[in-house]
Fold these 4 entries.
Entry 1:
Amino acid sequence: MAAAAGLYALASACSESLPEGHACPVLCPNQNIPVHDTVLDGLTAIVVDTTVVGYPLLGTEPELLVATSDSVDVRAAIRFDSVPFLFRPSPSDTLRPTARVFRPYLRLVFDSTTIRPRGNAAAGQISVYDIDTAGTDTSVAVLSSLFRPDRFLGAATIVPTIDSVRIGLDTARIRAHVAGDHLIRLGLRLSGAVGGAFTGRVAILNAGSGTPPVFSYAADTDTVHVAPFTSVPRSTSPRSDSTLLNRLRAYPIIVQGSSPPLGERLDIGGMPARRVYVRFAIPSRIIDSATVIRATLTLTLVPGGLRGFFSAPPDTLKLLPQALVSAPTVEDPTRAAGFLAPAAVVPIDTSRAVAALGDSVNIEFATAVRHWSRRAIDTVARAIVIQAFDEGATPLQTSFFPALPSVPAAQRPHVHLSYIPRVGFGLP
Amino acid sequence: MTTRRRPQRAVHPRTAAAAVLVLGAGLLAVPGSAAAQGNLSTQGFGYPPGQLSTASLAVGGALAELDPLSAINPAALAGERRAAIHLQYAPELRTVSTPQGTEHTTTTRFPVISASLPLGARLALGLSFSTLLDRTWESAQTGPVAVGDTVLPSTETFKSTGGIEDIQVDAGWSATSWLHAGLGLHLFTGQNQITAARAFPDTTVIKPVPFSETATYNYFGTGISGGVTIRASPLFMLAGSARLGGQLRVRRGDTLQSKGTVPPRVGAAVQFSGVPGVSLAARVDWEGWSHMSGLGSPALQPRDAWGYGIGADIVGPRVGTDRNLALRVGGQTRTLPFLADGAVVRENDISGGFGFPFSFDRASLDFTAVRAFRSASQPPGVSEGAWILSVGFTVRP
């Protein structure tokens, strides 16, 4: 038995040398795996393609955009509700309310790659305003009206060589809030450092990141016994909606958006953000009986469809296609577009749209097709959603032609499938 | 001179049989290392190793009809007076030469595992697992392929593991001192797992989804065999056996794919012991592989195969205090059942080996090396050579 086990181990340890196939194909009958190709027009392969709005939900943006141009005005609101206001002047003292405020500031960390423009001569400036107000919390009209000189708290210049900034704030106004309602609600606005017309943008790392905005002040000049207070974004209203309450820690105020009116286009990105829902009708003879190794959705750019792009350095809008986990019974594209499959379940590569890229963009979604082929047609929607990678934090927008009969065939979306039918190799 | 034997430890026959069953099922199920089908020998349903023990392989198969360890003639069992378990490991190192180049591959096999158990003075039972056809191979080719608007390097791989095994339960009966007869019942079973795959290792431009398709085929058939051995004179021993095959079915899952017939077999051998210390033997064997024709596609045309073998088993020098070393030499020629590019493949072997007992004759080890030459008229310029190295281990508790 021991010898047998030894022989078994010896056999299992044998190495294998793979052949190069010199004797094939003549001695390898029926060994061929051909790759077939077919191109389907959008009118045939696409059931629904439409632009979807309403995503991301307010306050869930990956970053906090502030941008300004002649056509775009996006500001940001950050709430530090319930800032600490009780302190001990010395360790033996009792807690007492803050009566004075020293060195108040707001610290912001940028996604430095997003800073535009990048020339030092055209530096931007972030101005901070007190936007605390009673009543309506999120009304753009109300909030935008609060960016007034009498509510100005401080400002700092933004240059591409920095990745964070500390903005000193008006002590008197901060003290009034700390001693009063304990609500520090700050509005951020980007403008030119030297005044005049300015076009630029920067994205600030949001409350959910590892380096959120920080508000700080000192309650005493004694920095040995009294540590400065620091706060991260927190919202205490509306009390009736705990989910919204949490989201409103920091959110954009879109005074003037980058998105044009909705039309017969497929829009992706922009502020407010748009995404595209595309539902496919891939022939069952392919999806059920073959293995799709490559599936490409080609979208043709509408002339002038790239908006907000800087040319130097050139902007890139990453397009993130995602499959859905919703069933086909969810027919409303806006609702269905919220049921996104995690990348770990259906990984799809991003595509890129840049100003100099050309007139079309390819979306590779073979992994989604494979996901669908393993599931019954009534269990999962054979659809993808294409959104901007930093949706809700970029003013960049791109538009594509939809699959409509009125659109010339060359400009309609089309689907290119490369597939391998069942080989059927088995018995000689 | 007397030999002191150690007290033998009793091994219950059922224990030995159970061990063989477990080992047989396990070892025969071990897929060997892959070899290419881009060769002459593994066409069709595969290569027939011959169901020979290591010792029989060394003498060109000439003694197989008289060998209780080979799964050929059930009558040979009657000569066994002690229980025995035999395990065999036989890697094949193959070289295929073509006008385009030379390939080297390795295939691992466990061609025969057998056990025998004498019941009284006249009857012995046996159980064996042996490989009827080994269809283990792999071929891979790399080249550019168009995927949409891009041409990518791609590797196309075909792989087969498994084959058809012969599980044989047999009995040998000593009718007289010169006549032994035997009967065997066969179950032909086994599995082929076939994989076809296309991979795209370069994903810098696009990331195609790799393709892979796997199919598992299960074989099931039955057969019966019988044989005799006759001591015609003190110098001559004759033996013959035949096997009749029943229906052989191939299923994929629950679906019957095809039907054929287990190939029948007829063989005969003669052994001459007129030279002291030398046993000469010759064997002829016919196997009706064409009965399998319904099992594959219509294009598969298996051919009946004749095989001829001669060999000598020579008593060699004494090994320690046990018995003598056995020296063996032989040669064999046969045709293989499945055509290569429409042509019959012939295999010519020369072989040699030795065996020695140890542990007071309670165990023995046999080593055999076979040099095989395979050729066919088609395709031109293609030939195949192989070294088959067989190690047999026999325990007689």
Entry 2:
Amino acid sequence: MIEKKSLGNIIFHTINYIFLGLFALFCILPFWIMLVASFTDDMALRQNGYLPWISQFSAAAYKWVFAGQEIQIGYEVTIFVTTVGTLGSLIAMSGLAYVMSLKRLKFRNAIAFYVFIPMIFTPGIVPWFIVTRNIWGLKDVIWALIFPMMIQSFWVFVLRNFFSALPQEIIESAYIDGASDATIFYSIILPLSKPVLATVGLFMAVAYWNDWFLGVMLLDFANFRPLSVLILKMVNNAQAILTAMKQPGVTIRADTLPTLSIRMATAVITIGPIILVYPFVQRYFVQGLTLGAIKG
Amino acid sequence: MLELSRLKNRIAVAQAKSGGKRHGALAALEYARQNWTLFLLALPGLLLIFMFSYAPMFGVVIAFEDYSPRTMFASPFVGLRNFATLFDSSIVGRLIANTLLLNFMFIIATTFFSVLVAILLNEVRSTVFKRVSQSVMFLPFFMGWTIVAMVLFGLIDYDVGTINALITKIGLDRIILTDKPEIWPFVLTLIRVWKGTGSGCIIYLAVLISVDPQLHEAAAMDGAGRWGRIRYISLPALVPVIILLVLLDIGRIFYGDFGMIYAVIGNQANLYSTTDVIDTYILRALQSNSNYGFSAAVGLSQSIMGFICVFGANWLVKKYSERRGEDYRLF
């Protein structure tokens, strides 16, 4: 639509651009502070605080982070959990969704109901916690970070709706040609479903990458922790030290604190991989969020 | 078409031969034999759902027991004693009030900002500005809550926080946020807006883009200004989606996203009075190994209230969409 160049329009657009620009700045500011602090000398941070510009450049924090055993293991754990979890979750969820999409099956509605119930009723964290640890034995093992969140009913339904919308003639003709159900699923359905698989896979990958809940709940004495849990520990330690310092008569030497720049460097390397792939996968995220609002 | 009818014929013949006349268990077995690959495809999913959703449902019995780790689910049955303690204790009222108030603030603030940003983005003419600002606003979506907590700490810390560092540069007194529980609901809401606006506005933007541009042109021809077009074209297009999404959020009001609160508030007990919600309370109880039976009773009450809310919200959505001649439902 062509607009008149009236004064009102010019004022509106200026204000609009300024507001949206400021809001975008507000969104990106924490990332900026994080990045700047991770490249600033630790003593300078102690003196000046987390400033939005680099007062004294230093890459020491990254050297320390990559030399540290704990964080290296954390990185490996997070990468393993994200890859295996996302792939496993896609295989398990799409298999289930495909069976639910087949109109010729008698029990498909029963399965749909079975998948649906957990969406509206959860028994609470306590029974889940006890059953997962004591009955299924998922405690202090890497699978404890993977299995419990592998199936999300919501995404199963999204996949089911996509499979149902595929042209049924293709499936029927493959059936006539003698293809088995597994062949049809793996060599016809899945290749046709790349967009929805990419969308669901990305949301699952972000969920696995950032998840701290399973790590906090199911790892007690394991010698590994995912990155998110390591970060949570750093935050809690810092908070505890702050509280302790307010008590009279307690002195804590400053050099026992986890250093300020290392904390931010850990945050940067944790968020880095996801931010880097974001431009390539942006359209799938948009697709997923629009799918999310229109349920079937 | 010919092929299809031939297939149907074949299936009918096969059925008549194999399972058509059989009954009961034999027919079921035959049916299973024909579809066993499908069963294998669905099996991992079915199994995982059983393990982590259905099995814990039997575990709710501990809400009615005096739980001890040694006897687990076979602990002595105490009836409704845990629930009686629950309704007597002052803490539960506070937990419910905090859960509802915080989620209520989150829903209002995130909806308002998502709609506002969507409308304003829709008015932007420069595609480059639109694309770049939208991508930037979307970035917080990727930041896990634990990192959010760490950066927040970096912003508001008393000694080294960015805010205080800048404030002291211009000669003002440092501010201490961690001593003021009353402002934390607003801080949490602000974080929520920061993290959710970029992803939340996408659905509204999709609706605005689908509005016929001729409507806008006709309105402009008839002398409607920008405000008029927003007020009488854009907003009415958004209202149904806003109502549906808000109702769905209300359905989940007892759950909310406690990940944020747990990560951001952590163990700062002086902030619990305004920020402790049902989930964070249960989580701490589990970690300190105390009173599982009572925590399970709290969790079960939450589930039941949540269940009622989901059904209520679904009923409202159905009623609302029926009146508009559409069919939006959660289920």
Entry 3:
Amino acid sequence: MIGPSRSRALRAVLLAGALAIVSGAAALAGQPAAPGAPGGPVAGEVRGLNGGASPGTRLVAAPPPPPPEVGTSLSPPTSKRVTDRSSFSGTWDRYQRGNPAPPTPPPAAGPPPVKPEIKAKIDAAQKALADAAARYEPIATDAVDCLPEGFPGMMNAIFPIEFLVTPGQVTIIEEAFNQVRRIYIDEPQGKIGDVEPVWFGHSVAKWEGDTLVIDTIGVKEQAKFRNIPHSDNMRITERMKLLSPDFLQDEMTIVDPEVFTEPWKLTFTYRRNPGYKIQEYICEAPRIYRDENGTTRLRTN
Amino acid sequence: MTSKTAKGVRMALVGAGAMVVAATLAIGGTASAHHSFAMYDSDNQIKLAGTVSKFQWTNPHIYIELETNPGETATKVKHYTIECASPGILTRIGWKFNMIKQGDKVQVVIAPLKNGDPGALLKAVKLPDGRVFGNGGPAGRAAIEF
């Protein structure tokens, strides 16, 4: 770990120049290269430009990116794995019921306030699923094709979930399908229709006191949560905070005027599982497959 | 060895408890992290004894390839592909990647494929050392005792 980390930091220093060395020294001493450093995450507006209608002209007009901030310290990071119970960082299980209970129990999720015509479609799809299951011929879902849930489905955390808070970024990893979501702090959001639709959307956030307020757009249409469709105009706001050292709450508001009659509010609560290490999940050589009729089958030997 | 066995039994019991909770949550077989188990006939479970020809520890599912012992089974099929849950689910109830090996003689309770193909969903497995393991919440409980 120390070798690559030092090498990365050194490369960043050489590229960034003396000015950045001075400005970044105090804030980032002892940390690896910051988000925005060479090789790190790309800023929101750059993503937007790349997805724009006429990228060539806009790229020419775009100002050069600001020099990345880098740290100067070459001392190795703390190597011991510790649990900081004042931070989101760590591994968690989604809390549903049982003891110990969080200070504020998660409210029961109401039905999604979908428009009548959307509800008819969802109900028909649910009935088709149930009918097929009753015939012992379950309809294949995206997971059969090794596709992930995407956002917001991954926040439902059927498997354990890990939060990593680093300078300028919160990263969330759900064990199933190695799902990774990156949230950039204090970066501008792109425009709906101008950002590339992706499985986990484009997330930026600001800290309001101890609450992380996250804005997400650009979720790929195929990434459905609870089989509910969404449009390109979907926007999801989350308010994420610690209820206590061992309980984390994510209050989610999903707005999509083409699907919902009013914002759909959901709350996910997670309980800290400090000893747990997220396992690898590669969807590898599945015997389960989708046949020509879209039915889930097991390939037997 | 005794304490290891006791630990295994405790793990299996914890797993059984978790299965009860998960089974009550599973509506329409959609609680699985990967796919529906509706193609298996969980109402007509059978018990098999056989020799493991392959143990595939992979996501999204683990598989046991089993050569059944003639005369000891409830079916004439000689070879079964038996689907288990995922490494994550099963590690959390005490399974380990090397706890079953090629050549092991095991007993299993399975829900066979409804379409008659030689495949099945595992409900429980009994290892050569006597330890019994369930197959996690979404797969449901064994209806037959070993």
Entry 4:
Amino acid sequence: MAEFLQVLFTGLSQGGIYALIGIGFSLVNMSTRVLNLAQGSYALLGGFVFLTLATRYGLPLWAALALVLVFVAMLGVVTERIVSLRVRPWRPISHDMAILTTLALVVVAEGAAFLIWGPDPQRGPALQRGVVNVLGAILIWQSVWMLVITLVIAAGLQWLLIRTWLGRSMRACAQNPLTAALLGIDVRRVGMAAFTLSAVIGALAGMLVSPITWLDYQIGGEFMLKGVLAYLLGGELAIAGPLVGGLVLGLVENLFLLFPGATGGLLKQVVPMALLIVMLVWRPQGLLGGPRAR
Amino acid sequence: MSTTARTDRIVPSDRTSRHAPGSRISSLAFAAMAALGLCSAAQAQEPIKLGILLTHVGPTAIFARYEDKGARMRIDEVNRAGGIKGRRIEVIGYDTEGKPDRAGTLFRRLAQEDKVSAVIGPDSIYVLLGMSSVPTESKVFSMAAPGNYELVPMKDRQWVASAWTANGYTMVLGLAWLKDKLRVGRVGMLTTADSIGEMIGREATDTAKMLGMEMVQVLAQPASDRDLLPSLTKLNGMKPGIEGLVVFGSGPYGTIAMNQTDLAGVNVPILYIGGNIIPELIKDVTPETGKRTFLTVARNVVADTLPASDPYIAAAKKFNADYQAKYKETPTQPSAVGYDMASTVIDAIENVGSDPVKIRDYIYTKQKDFPMAQGIRTNRTPSDAYGIDPRDVVVASIEGGRFVFKGYLKDSYKALGIKDEAITEQMRRFKMLAD
Amino acid sequence: MSAETPSDDAISPACASPAPSPTKGSRASPVAAGAPASPILSIERLSAAYDGSLPVLEDVSLELARGELVAVLGANGAGKSTLLRTLSGLLPCLAGRIIFEGVDITRLAPDRRVVRGLVQVPEGRQMLAALTVEENLLLGGYVHRRDPAGLRRTLDEVFALFPRLSERRTQAAGLLSGGEQQMVALGRAMMGRPRALLLDEPSFGLAPKVVSDTFRVIDGLRSSGLPILLIEQNASKALAVADRAVVLRAGRVVARGTAAELAASEEVRRSYLGD
């Protein structure tokens, strides 16, 4: 029982991080149709800048947090500018070029992180240290917070999408960017807002996860992979899709650890990718995607 | 950090100063000086070239940093003493960037274009496995230092030797100390879910069996996992309980696995196996966990806490002092490995000259009882590319962020009555020795 | 963004009480009556092309006076839709100028043109399919988002005009019938409080009955004083509501005149009226 609970909780907290990254993919993709592979790099850079400010320069956590958010927001804007510098209403974004550009950004971010922070893993301060024992399973407080904050962010974004003009215009762009423009929506600004928002969410993921997973310069790619997986797994619903996708991915991965012996760990490595292939072939609309309303 | 020793190399590409315009000018100046008779006869002799091919990128980069410093320290010593028979050693250093194909290309370049006498490196097993046939092809000896030399194909071993023991295996042997000193009978294991983790798991299971211990279960999680509580909780739930835990994994994985044993309530002695044998990587191990964590290390790592009667203590202390003086940092096990990589090759050159084939022959057949800074002696043969008794290391625990001597592994083997032949046989089974 | 949305509950289904309809001439523009001479929209020698291709539109000049409905007729591929895309800023001009209310908007981004009051109803209605009817309508008023009270008023007017939409306000727009979607498209444009309306093929893909209904609404809008540029393939329907019309062929204006003149023209009858 304790064993099962442990796996359940580990899966949910890991899945929460996948979900956050996946939501970033979702926001940008719905608003601009770009699969921004640099999504994991915001987590990498945000996490590293945060731990540097907080530990090396001893800034109070809130100040470090504020600076990091400003910094990654700018990174988000820069990404958007690079990706759609030459985009006009009559010259839509080239998705191949955009995806390659963001891939290049992943490499640039990785190189920068290597030069600045070196090859060794580092970790930042935790919100709350220690653990709590629940029915024999051990919950790391930081993981609990990770999951809680993920859910809060997801709920906040859902509210934003339904109840605010920014959210409505993002959904309009998701449906039809040309129509959105004809309604008076500045499509480029919506895209920029989506990139900014997703960069901020990515950085939050990086900061939350670093006390547990540690960060090294290569972790951006790992985040990216799991985030894409969560996003594709979950399906079309902007927030609920990647949220469910991430949590399911985290759970499925870790449930394999219930296998006796070393098999579970090996399966945990392989199965997520296999799952992706299965999904893309048999259910490309994702777990939550239904028939499109057109 | 001192940079003087590394200016001619790495960081981070292969564009070393050899091809830079500056060096061309200086070699012109050198030629002019020679023509004017300003150079001594010794300087005028052609230098001996050695390649250094290490991996300065990725999770093992931190080892390369130490190995590089250790190797250059030995080379500097030789050059400062006037070289080998008047010939200076010139270093040509490249970075594999963790890419096996790139490492292969660079090794060929070292052999064919740079015409080095031997190569120090590569160090990472992942890199070495992708290019282990290249030294044989190019007939240049590779003084490697992979963590798992037993994975190198037999056919490639005549030109690639290891500068230390099969590290993972040696650390597995620490089980004997757990049984001998701590009376541990039932052990569980947490390893990484990859081929090396699996192999170490098999080695540990086999060793436990040889020692009359019971390996209850070997669990694995991916090396990228940071929440190892699922496995640890499972091991904690074993009935009857385990008395010892074997952990394999480098970097944060290893550290986190050890620390989380506390959380999971697995408060048993831990035998640690993996790359965290340098201070940077153990600094996050909590004091409570560190005290019950044991691992096998080279003697230079625990030189300060060795018994005064230790036969290697003087050599280990001298190496540590010299290294500290040169680099203003505490020497580590990889520092000594790097030093030994260079000194093995240099010893051969001092005896048979700079011909690559002769160097290789010497190292495999004539270099007997060669003392190394790790506090170990090596006697390589064509069927044994280590030439080291893997039990010839010491057991340490982690106290106050450093390694503290706990005992001699060999004594425990003696106390448990394990025969030498059993070890040789096991090494053969795990392909550390050729048949 | 920062402007707060009126909560959904605040927008009450006011359609229950018959609100004054904007279509019954109650909203005559004060300027429109007095200044037919100064057009609200003038298109001067406009040329346009898709990226790298030959011009699809060449040297087109056209004026839309206040309170006027001008129809642009032409066969498929004559350049009608290209003209509209250029006017709304979805396509760049190669040459020529677009003047709207005395301001040169030739290089203005599409959304800025909407802010100025030049609103388009796109061909095929272009529903934001997954959004509800009400969200579609609200987004039509995006440029007035900082005036939530005014927006709610306009929304009530639209619901009064199209009571069907009020019943379906929470349905996904993509699930509506073609006719209902046309209502949403028109209502959405009204939400932007247009100073001039560009209509792209309102009859496109609709049943004859619905086409007639649609044109009744268009006629109503015209009578209310809203200047309309109507792109239409169904020339007889278009000429029935238009004051003037031009005929495009291969990107050029080949005929122009009052609706009556063109309806009488043999050439136009043969080519576009299909009889």
